[in-house]
Protein backbone atom coordinates (compact mmCIF):
# COMPACT_ATOMS: atom_id res chain seq x y z
CA UNK A 1 0.00 0.00 0.00
CA UNK A 2 1.44 3.38 -1.00
CA UNK A 3 1.72 6.21 1.48
CA UNK A 4 -0.75 9.05 1.31
CA UNK A 5 0.42 12.55 0.44
CA UNK A 6 1.22 14.57 3.60
CA UNK A 7 -1.96 14.89 5.66
CA UNK A 8 -2.88 16.72 8.87
CA UNK A 9 -2.78 14.29 11.77
CA UNK A 10 -5.06 16.37 13.99
CA UNK A 11 -8.66 17.04 12.94
CA UNK A 12 -8.10 20.61 14.12
CA UNK A 13 -5.74 21.05 11.17
CA UNK A 14 -7.94 19.05 8.82
CA UNK A 15 -11.70 18.61 9.15
CA UNK A 16 -12.16 21.49 11.60
CA UNK A 17 -9.40 23.79 10.40
CA UNK A 18 -11.73 26.55 9.24
CA UNK A 19 -13.44 26.79 12.63
CA UNK A 20 -10.26 27.01 14.70
CA UNK A 21 -8.10 28.94 12.20
CA UNK A 22 -8.27 32.24 14.14
CA UNK A 23 -6.36 30.63 17.01
CA UNK A 24 -3.49 29.70 14.70
CA UNK A 25 -2.56 33.36 14.36
CA UNK A 26 -1.42 33.17 17.98
CA UNK A 27 -1.05 29.60 19.23
CA UNK A 28 0.66 27.94 16.28
CA UNK A 29 4.43 27.53 16.05
CA UNK A 30 4.50 30.39 13.55
CA UNK A 31 2.43 32.55 15.89
CA UNK A 32 4.85 31.82 18.71
CA UNK A 33 7.84 32.68 16.52
CA UNK A 34 6.25 35.94 15.43
CA UNK A 35 5.80 36.85 19.10
CA UNK A 36 9.42 35.91 19.78
CA UNK A 37 10.56 38.26 17.04
CA UNK A 38 8.33 40.94 18.54
CA UNK A 39 9.91 40.53 21.99
CA UNK A 40 13.46 40.54 20.56
CA UNK A 41 12.75 43.66 18.51
CA UNK A 42 11.06 45.54 21.33
CA UNK A 43 13.95 44.67 23.68
CA UNK A 44 16.38 46.15 21.16
CA UNK A 45 14.30 49.32 21.02
CA UNK A 46 14.03 49.48 24.83
CA UNK A 47 17.82 49.21 25.23
CA UNK A 48 18.58 51.83 22.62
CA UNK A 49 15.89 54.13 24.00
CA UNK A 50 17.92 54.13 27.24
CA UNK A 51 21.10 54.87 25.22
CA UNK A 52 22.80 51.90 26.86
CA UNK A 53 26.32 50.82 25.90
CA UNK A 54 26.99 53.82 23.73
CA UNK A 55 23.88 53.51 21.58
CA UNK A 56 21.49 56.27 20.64
CA UNK A 57 17.70 56.06 20.39
CA UNK A 58 16.56 54.87 16.99
CA UNK A 59 14.65 57.22 14.74
CA UNK A 60 10.93 56.66 14.45
CA UNK A 61 11.50 55.55 10.86
CA UNK A 62 14.03 52.93 11.97
CA UNK A 63 11.72 51.74 14.72
CA UNK A 64 8.93 51.31 12.19
CA UNK A 65 11.21 49.35 9.84
CA UNK A 66 12.40 47.23 12.75
CA UNK A 67 8.87 46.55 13.98
CA UNK A 68 7.92 45.48 10.48
CA UNK A 69 9.92 42.32 11.19
CA UNK A 70 7.03 41.05 13.31
CA UNK A 71 4.17 43.14 11.93
CA UNK A 72 4.83 41.71 8.44
CA UNK A 73 6.08 38.31 9.63
CA UNK A 74 5.14 35.80 6.94
CA UNK A 75 5.92 32.62 5.05
CA UNK A 76 9.45 33.62 4.05
CA UNK A 77 10.31 34.17 7.72
CA UNK A 78 8.65 30.89 8.71
CA UNK A 79 10.69 29.02 6.12
CA UNK A 80 13.92 30.85 7.07
CA UNK A 81 13.45 29.89 10.72
CA UNK A 82 12.71 26.26 9.87
CA UNK A 83 15.93 26.00 7.88
CA UNK A 84 18.00 27.70 10.56
CA UNK A 85 16.49 25.69 13.42
CA UNK A 86 17.39 22.49 11.55
CA UNK A 87 21.01 23.59 12.04
CA UNK A 88 20.89 25.25 15.48
CA UNK A 89 18.54 22.65 17.02
CA UNK A 90 17.35 25.57 19.14
CA UNK A 91 14.19 27.50 18.28
CA UNK A 92 14.91 30.73 20.17
CA UNK A 93 18.49 30.88 18.85
CA UNK A 94 17.11 30.64 15.33
CA UNK A 95 14.91 33.65 16.07
CA UNK A 96 17.92 35.57 17.34
CA UNK A 97 19.76 34.80 14.10
CA UNK A 98 16.74 35.92 12.09
CA UNK A 99 16.71 39.29 13.83
CA UNK A 100 20.46 39.71 13.37
CA UNK A 101 20.14 38.85 9.69
CA UNK A 102 17.36 41.38 9.20
CA UNK A 103 19.30 44.06 11.09
CA UNK A 104 22.06 43.70 8.53
CA UNK A 105 19.53 44.05 5.72
CA UNK A 106 18.15 47.20 7.35
CA UNK A 107 21.62 48.69 7.81
CA UNK A 108 21.33 48.50 11.59
CA UNK A 109 24.36 46.28 12.15
CA UNK A 110 25.60 48.68 14.82
CA UNK A 111 23.07 47.40 17.36
CA UNK A 112 23.27 43.73 16.37
CA UNK A 113 25.11 42.74 19.57
CA UNK A 114 22.18 43.97 21.63
CA UNK A 115 19.98 41.31 20.02
CA UNK A 116 18.93 38.88 22.76
CA UNK A 117 21.11 40.89 25.16
CA UNK A 118 21.49 39.25 28.61
CA UNK A 119 18.48 37.04 27.83
CA UNK A 120 17.96 33.41 28.51
CA UNK A 121 15.56 31.66 26.13
CA UNK A 122 12.88 31.62 28.79
CA UNK A 123 12.90 35.42 28.95
CA UNK A 124 11.85 35.49 25.32
CA UNK A 125 9.55 32.48 25.62
CA UNK A 126 7.71 33.56 28.76
CA UNK A 127 6.93 36.94 27.23
CA UNK A 128 5.97 35.34 23.91
CA UNK A 129 3.64 32.81 25.49
CA UNK A 130 2.06 35.48 27.66
CA UNK A 131 1.42 37.58 24.55
CA UNK A 132 0.13 34.77 22.34
CA UNK A 133 -2.11 33.22 24.98
CA UNK A 134 -3.44 36.62 26.05
CA UNK A 135 -4.29 37.53 22.46
CA UNK A 136 -5.80 34.15 21.63
CA UNK A 137 -7.98 34.22 24.74
CA UNK A 138 -9.10 37.86 24.58
CA UNK A 139 -9.46 38.15 20.80
CA UNK A 140 -10.76 34.71 19.81
CA UNK A 141 -11.78 32.35 22.62
CA UNK A 142 -13.46 34.72 25.09
CA UNK A 143 -15.53 36.49 22.40
CA UNK A 144 -16.84 33.07 21.32
CA UNK A 145 -17.64 32.16 24.92
CA UNK A 146 -19.48 35.45 25.37
CA UNK A 147 -21.35 34.82 22.11
CA UNK A 148 -22.66 31.56 23.57
CA UNK A 149 -23.53 33.34 26.83
CA UNK A 150 -25.41 36.02 24.88
CA UNK A 151 -27.31 33.34 22.97
CA UNK A 152 -28.26 31.65 26.23
CA UNK A 153 -29.30 34.97 27.76
CA UNK A 154 -31.56 35.69 24.79
CA UNK A 155 -33.07 32.20 25.01
CA UNK A 156 -33.64 32.63 28.74
CA UNK A 157 -35.52 35.87 28.11
CA UNK A 158 -37.54 34.36 25.28
CA UNK A 159 -38.61 31.35 27.36
CA UNK A 160 -38.78 33.00 30.79
CA UNK A 161 -42.52 32.26 31.08
CA UNK A 162 -42.53 28.79 29.48
CA UNK A 163 -43.47 26.41 32.33
CA UNK A 164 -41.60 23.13 32.41
CA UNK A 165 -41.59 20.09 34.64
CA UNK A 166 -38.32 19.97 36.54
CA UNK A 167 -36.62 16.61 36.86
CA UNK A 168 -34.51 16.32 39.98
CA UNK A 169 -32.77 12.91 40.00
CA UNK A 170 -34.52 12.42 36.66
CA UNK A 171 -37.90 12.29 38.41
CA UNK A 172 -40.85 14.72 38.12
CA UNK A 173 -40.24 17.64 40.50
CA UNK A 174 -41.41 21.16 41.29
CA UNK A 175 -42.03 22.95 37.97
CA UNK A 176 -39.74 25.68 36.68
CA UNK A 177 -39.52 27.53 33.38
CA UNK A 178 -37.28 26.71 30.47
CA UNK A 179 -36.02 30.29 30.52
CA UNK A 180 -34.89 30.01 34.11
CA UNK A 181 -33.09 26.72 33.46
CA UNK A 182 -31.28 28.12 30.42
CA UNK A 183 -30.56 31.23 32.47
CA UNK A 184 -28.76 29.14 35.08
CA UNK A 185 -26.12 28.26 32.48
CA UNK A 186 -25.80 31.86 31.31
CA UNK A 187 -25.30 32.96 34.94
CA UNK A 188 -22.70 30.28 35.65
CA UNK A 189 -20.76 30.93 32.46
CA UNK A 190 -20.78 34.71 32.83
CA UNK A 191 -19.28 34.38 36.31
CA UNK A 192 -16.38 32.18 35.17
CA UNK A 193 -15.92 34.28 32.00
CA UNK A 194 -15.37 37.36 34.15
CA UNK A 195 -12.74 35.49 36.14
CA UNK A 196 -10.98 34.50 32.92
CA UNK A 197 -11.28 38.06 31.63
CA UNK A 198 -9.42 39.24 34.75
CA UNK A 199 -6.57 36.75 34.26
CA UNK A 200 -2.95 37.75 34.74
CA UNK A 201 -0.47 37.15 31.92
CA UNK A 202 3.03 37.11 33.39
CA UNK A 203 6.54 37.05 32.00
CA UNK A 204 10.03 37.19 33.47
CA UNK A 205 13.02 38.98 31.98
CA UNK A 206 15.70 38.43 34.61
CA UNK A 207 18.24 36.19 32.96
CA UNK A 208 19.58 32.68 33.36
CA UNK A 209 18.42 31.99 36.92
CA UNK A 210 16.26 35.01 37.67
CA UNK A 211 19.07 37.07 39.22
CA UNK A 212 19.89 39.66 36.51
CA UNK A 213 23.51 38.48 36.96
CA UNK A 214 24.63 39.06 33.37
CA UNK A 215 22.84 42.40 33.29
CA UNK A 216 24.64 43.63 36.40
CA UNK A 217 27.98 42.35 35.10
CA UNK A 218 27.47 44.35 31.89
CA UNK A 219 26.47 47.57 33.69
CA UNK A 220 26.04 47.58 37.48
CA UNK A 221 24.77 51.18 37.42
CA UNK A 222 21.53 50.33 35.64
CA UNK A 223 18.39 49.50 37.65
CA UNK A 224 17.77 46.33 35.72
CA UNK A 225 14.66 45.16 37.63
CA UNK A 226 13.05 48.53 36.93
CA UNK A 227 14.07 48.51 33.27
CA UNK A 228 12.94 44.95 32.56
CA UNK A 229 9.67 45.42 34.45
CA UNK A 230 8.91 48.55 32.45
CA UNK A 231 9.78 46.67 29.27
CA UNK A 232 7.47 43.74 30.00
CA UNK A 233 4.65 46.08 30.99
CA UNK A 234 5.14 48.04 27.75
CA UNK A 235 4.14 44.86 25.93
CA UNK A 236 0.78 44.85 27.70
CA UNK A 237 1.55 42.00 30.10
CA UNK A 238 2.79 41.83 33.70
CA UNK A 239 6.24 41.14 35.10
CA UNK A 240 7.02 38.37 37.57
CA UNK A 241 10.06 39.63 39.53
CA UNK A 242 10.76 36.51 41.60
CA UNK A 243 11.51 33.45 39.49
CA UNK A 244 14.01 30.73 38.66
CA UNK A 245 15.21 30.48 35.07
CA UNK A 246 11.57 30.14 34.09
CA UNK A 247 8.49 32.16 34.82
CA UNK A 248 6.70 29.82 37.19
CA UNK A 249 3.62 29.34 34.97
CA UNK A 250 1.18 29.76 37.85
CA UNK A 251 -0.86 32.22 35.81
CA UNK A 252 -1.19 29.56 33.13
CA UNK A 253 -2.29 26.98 35.66
CA UNK A 254 -4.97 29.38 36.91
CA UNK A 255 -6.14 30.19 33.39
CA UNK A 256 -6.32 26.58 32.20
CA UNK A 257 -8.14 25.50 35.35
CA UNK A 258 -10.71 28.23 34.74
CA UNK A 259 -11.01 27.30 31.07
CA UNK A 260 -11.53 23.67 32.12
CA UNK A 261 -14.16 24.85 34.64
CA UNK A 262 -15.96 26.77 31.89
CA UNK A 263 -15.77 23.64 29.75
CA UNK A 264 -17.40 21.62 32.51
CA UNK A 265 -20.34 24.04 32.63
CA UNK A 266 -20.61 23.94 28.84
CA UNK A 267 -20.53 20.13 28.92
CA UNK A 268 -23.40 20.22 31.43
CA UNK A 269 -25.28 22.52 29.04
CA UNK A 270 -24.68 20.19 26.09
CA UNK A 271 -25.95 17.11 27.92
CA UNK A 272 -28.98 18.93 29.34
CA UNK A 273 -30.05 20.35 25.96
CA UNK A 274 -29.48 16.92 24.41
CA UNK A 275 -31.81 15.47 27.05
CA UNK A 276 -34.44 18.16 26.49
CA UNK A 277 -34.34 17.29 22.78
CA UNK A 278 -34.79 13.59 23.59
CA UNK A 279 -37.79 14.48 25.78
CA UNK A 280 -39.31 16.50 22.94
CA UNK A 281 -39.04 19.79 24.82
CA UNK A 282 -37.02 21.18 21.93
CA UNK A 283 -37.56 20.27 18.29
CA UNK A 284 -34.65 20.42 15.88
CA UNK A 285 -34.96 22.67 12.87
CA UNK A 286 -34.13 20.70 9.71
CA UNK A 287 -31.11 21.95 7.78
CA UNK A 288 -31.65 21.82 4.03
CA UNK A 289 -29.68 19.01 2.41
CA UNK A 290 -28.48 17.55 5.71
CA UNK A 291 -28.67 13.82 6.46
CA UNK A 292 -29.46 12.66 9.98
CA UNK A 293 -29.01 8.93 9.48
CA UNK A 294 -27.59 6.93 6.60
CA UNK A 295 -30.49 4.48 6.85
CA UNK A 296 -33.33 6.25 8.76
CA UNK A 297 -34.55 9.22 6.70
CA UNK A 298 -36.72 10.67 9.48
CA UNK A 299 -33.87 11.35 11.89
CA UNK A 300 -32.39 14.69 12.89
CA UNK A 301 -29.57 13.88 15.26
CA UNK A 302 -28.45 16.39 17.93
CA UNK A 303 -24.91 16.23 16.56
CA UNK A 304 -23.95 19.79 17.54
CA UNK A 305 -24.37 18.99 21.19
CA UNK A 306 -22.71 15.58 20.90
CA UNK A 307 -19.76 17.12 19.07
CA UNK A 308 -19.48 19.83 21.72
CA UNK A 309 -19.65 17.26 24.51
CA UNK A 310 -16.81 15.19 23.07
CA UNK A 311 -14.58 18.15 22.26
CA UNK A 312 -15.09 19.62 25.71
CA UNK A 313 -13.93 16.34 27.21
CA UNK A 314 -10.78 16.41 25.07
CA UNK A 315 -10.15 20.07 25.89
CA UNK A 316 -10.77 19.47 29.59
CA UNK A 317 -8.26 16.63 29.65
CA UNK A 318 -5.65 18.77 27.92
CA UNK A 319 -6.28 21.77 30.17
CA UNK A 320 -5.93 19.51 33.21
CA UNK A 321 -2.66 18.10 31.89
CA UNK A 322 -1.32 21.58 31.11
CA UNK A 323 -2.15 22.76 34.62
CA UNK A 324 -0.72 19.66 36.27
CA UNK A 325 2.54 19.70 34.30
CA UNK A 326 3.25 23.41 34.21
CA UNK A 327 2.93 23.93 37.96
CA UNK A 328 6.20 22.04 38.51
CA UNK A 329 9.77 22.61 37.31
CA UNK A 330 12.68 20.65 38.73
CA UNK A 331 15.06 22.90 40.65
CA UNK A 332 15.80 26.00 38.58
CA UNK A 333 14.62 24.63 35.22
CA UNK A 334 13.61 21.58 33.24
CA UNK A 335 12.13 21.30 29.76
CA UNK A 336 8.85 19.51 30.49
CA UNK A 337 7.11 22.83 29.94
CA UNK A 338 8.52 23.26 26.45
CA UNK A 339 6.66 20.46 24.69
CA UNK A 340 3.66 20.83 27.01
CA UNK A 341 3.08 24.47 26.11
CA UNK A 342 3.05 23.59 22.43
CA UNK A 343 -0.33 21.96 23.10
CA UNK A 344 -1.98 25.11 24.45
CA UNK A 345 -3.44 25.75 21.02
CA UNK A 346 -4.75 22.19 20.81
CA UNK A 347 -6.63 22.60 24.11
CA UNK A 348 -8.15 25.92 23.14
CA UNK A 349 -8.81 24.58 19.64
CA UNK A 350 -11.02 21.75 20.89
CA UNK A 351 -12.72 24.17 23.28
CA UNK A 352 -13.35 26.70 20.50
CA UNK A 353 -14.73 23.94 18.28
CA UNK A 354 -17.14 22.99 21.07
CA UNK A 355 -18.23 26.59 21.53
CA UNK A 356 -18.88 26.90 17.80
CA UNK A 357 -21.01 23.74 17.82
CA UNK A 358 -22.96 24.89 20.85
CA UNK A 359 -23.71 28.28 19.35
CA UNK A 360 -24.82 26.70 16.08
CA UNK A 361 -26.78 23.98 17.86
CA UNK A 362 -28.66 26.46 20.04
CA UNK A 363 -29.67 28.27 16.86
CA UNK A 364 -31.09 25.09 15.35
CA UNK A 365 -33.65 24.19 18.03
CA UNK A 366 -37.14 25.45 18.75
CA UNK A 367 -39.13 25.17 21.98
CA UNK A 368 -42.16 22.87 21.92
CA UNK A 369 -44.46 24.46 24.56
CA UNK A 370 -47.26 21.95 23.89
CA UNK A 371 -44.96 19.09 24.91
CA UNK A 372 -43.96 20.95 28.08
CA UNK A 373 -47.60 21.59 29.00
CA UNK A 374 -48.61 17.99 28.32
CA UNK A 375 -45.80 16.76 30.55
CA UNK A 376 -46.93 19.09 33.32
CA UNK A 377 -50.55 18.03 33.00
CA UNK A 378 -49.51 14.38 33.41
CA UNK A 379 -47.82 15.07 36.74
CA UNK A 380 -50.23 16.79 39.10
CA UNK A 381 -48.58 15.04 42.05
CA UNK A 382 -45.81 17.66 41.93
CA UNK A 383 -48.25 19.98 43.69
CA UNK A 384 -47.84 17.86 46.84
CA UNK A 385 -44.98 20.13 47.89
CA UNK A 386 -47.15 23.22 47.60
CA UNK A 387 -50.04 21.63 49.50
CA UNK A 388 -48.01 20.34 52.45
CA UNK A 389 -46.12 23.65 52.71
CA UNK A 390 -49.36 25.65 52.77
CA UNK A 391 -50.75 23.29 55.41
CA UNK A 392 -47.65 23.86 57.54
CA UNK A 393 -48.16 27.60 57.27
CA UNK A 394 -51.80 27.18 58.29
CA UNK A 395 -50.80 25.06 61.32
CA UNK A 396 -48.28 27.71 62.36
CA UNK A 397 -50.96 30.39 62.01
CA UNK A 398 -53.40 28.40 64.18
CA UNK A 399 -55.82 27.73 61.35
CA UNK A 400 -55.30 23.95 61.13
CA UNK A 401 -55.18 20.96 63.48
CA UNK A 402 -53.41 18.63 61.03
CA UNK A 403 -50.53 16.88 62.83
CA UNK A 404 -48.17 15.67 60.04
CA UNK A 405 -48.82 17.33 56.67
CA UNK A 406 -45.75 15.80 55.01
CA UNK A 407 -46.84 12.25 55.88
CA UNK A 408 -50.38 13.08 54.77
CA UNK A 409 -49.22 14.12 51.30
CA UNK A 410 -46.67 11.33 51.13
CA UNK A 411 -49.40 8.75 51.62
CA UNK A 412 -51.47 10.41 48.90
CA UNK A 413 -48.84 10.87 46.21
CA UNK A 414 -45.65 8.86 46.67
CA UNK A 415 -45.23 6.39 43.81
CA UNK A 416 -48.73 7.17 42.53
CA UNK A 417 -50.26 9.16 39.73
CA UNK A 418 -52.71 11.73 41.09
CA UNK A 419 -54.95 13.68 38.76
CA UNK A 420 -56.39 17.19 38.98
CA UNK A 421 -59.74 15.98 40.29
CA UNK A 422 -58.12 13.80 42.97
CA UNK A 423 -56.04 16.70 44.25
CA UNK A 424 -59.00 19.09 44.18
CA UNK A 425 -61.08 16.69 46.27
CA UNK A 426 -58.17 16.24 48.67
CA UNK A 427 -57.69 20.01 49.08
CA UNK A 428 -61.40 20.62 49.67
CA UNK A 429 -61.28 18.16 52.57
CA UNK A 430 -58.24 19.75 54.26
CA UNK A 431 -58.54 21.44 57.64
CA UNK A 432 -57.15 24.81 56.49
CA UNK A 433 -58.42 28.36 56.03
CA UNK A 434 -60.63 29.28 53.08
CA UNK A 435 -58.09 31.68 51.53
CA UNK A 436 -55.34 29.05 51.58
CA UNK A 437 -57.74 26.47 50.19
CA UNK A 438 -58.71 28.81 47.34
CA UNK A 439 -55.06 29.44 46.45
CA UNK A 440 -54.37 25.72 46.27
CA UNK A 441 -57.47 25.01 44.18
CA UNK A 442 -56.35 27.65 41.66
CA UNK A 443 -52.90 26.10 41.40
CA UNK A 444 -51.88 23.90 38.46
CA UNK A 445 -48.52 22.34 37.59
CA UNK A 446 -48.13 24.96 34.85
CA UNK A 447 -48.67 27.86 37.26
CA UNK A 448 -46.60 26.41 40.10
CA UNK A 449 -43.36 28.05 38.98
CA UNK A 450 -42.83 30.52 41.81
CA UNK A 451 -40.42 33.30 40.85
CA UNK A 452 -38.78 31.39 38.01
CA UNK A 453 -39.72 34.03 35.43
CA UNK A 454 -38.44 36.98 37.41
CA UNK A 455 -35.23 35.12 38.23
CA UNK A 456 -34.31 35.50 34.57
CA UNK A 457 -34.27 39.27 35.05
CA UNK A 458 -31.12 38.87 37.18
CA UNK A 459 -29.22 38.06 34.02
Q: Top keywords for this entry?
A:
459 residues, mainly alpha, Fumarase C, Chain B, domain 1, Fumarase C, Chain A, domain 2, two-stranded parallel ribbon, elongated
- Per CATH, the superfamily of the largest domain is Fumarase/aspartase (Central domain)
How many domains make up the 3D coordinates?
3
Strand proportion: 5-15%
Average of pLDDT: 94
What is the approximate shape?
Answer: elongated
The secondary structure category is mainly alpha
The SSE order reads HHHHHHEEHEHHEHEHHHEHHHHHH
* Uncertain residue ranges: none
Oligomer: single chain
User: Which strand order do you get reading across the main beta sheet?
Assistant: 1-2
Tell me the CATH architecture of the largest domain. Answer: Up-down Bundle
| Tally of DSSP β-strands | 6
CATH class categorisation of the largest domain:
Mainly Alpha
Fold topology:
Layout: H1 17-27, H2 29-49, H3 60-71, H4 75-88, H5 91-105, H6 121-158, E1 163-168, E2 171-177, H7 178-197, E3 202-203, H8 213-218, H9 224-234, E4 238-239, H10 250-279, E5 282-284, H11 303-326, H12 336-341, H13 344-362, E6 365-367, H14 369-377, H15 384-396, H16 405-413, H17 420-428, H18 434-442, H19 452-455
Parallel strand pairs: 3-4
Antiparallel strand pairs: 1-2, 5-6
Pfam family, one: Lyase_1
Protein name: Adenylosuccinate lyase
InterPro entries: Fumarase/histidase_N (IPR024083), Fumarate_lyase_CS (IPR020557), Fumarate_lyase_fam (IPR000362), Fumarate_lyase_N (IPR022761), L-Aspartase-like (IPR008948), PurB_bact (IPR047136), PurB_C (IPR013539)
Amino acid sequence: MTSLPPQPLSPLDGRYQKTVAPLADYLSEAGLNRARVEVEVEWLIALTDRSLFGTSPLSEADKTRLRALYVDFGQNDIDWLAEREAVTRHDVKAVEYLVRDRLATLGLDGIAELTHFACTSEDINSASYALTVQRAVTRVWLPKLYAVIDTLTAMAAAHRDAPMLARTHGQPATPTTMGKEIGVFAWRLRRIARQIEASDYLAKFSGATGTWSAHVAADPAVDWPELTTAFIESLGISANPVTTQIESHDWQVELYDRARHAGGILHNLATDVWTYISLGYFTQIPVAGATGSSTMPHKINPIRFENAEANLEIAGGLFATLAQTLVTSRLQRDLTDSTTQRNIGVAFGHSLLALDNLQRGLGEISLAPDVLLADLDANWEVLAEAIQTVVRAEIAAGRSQITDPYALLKDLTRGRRVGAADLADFVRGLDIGDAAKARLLDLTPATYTGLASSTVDRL
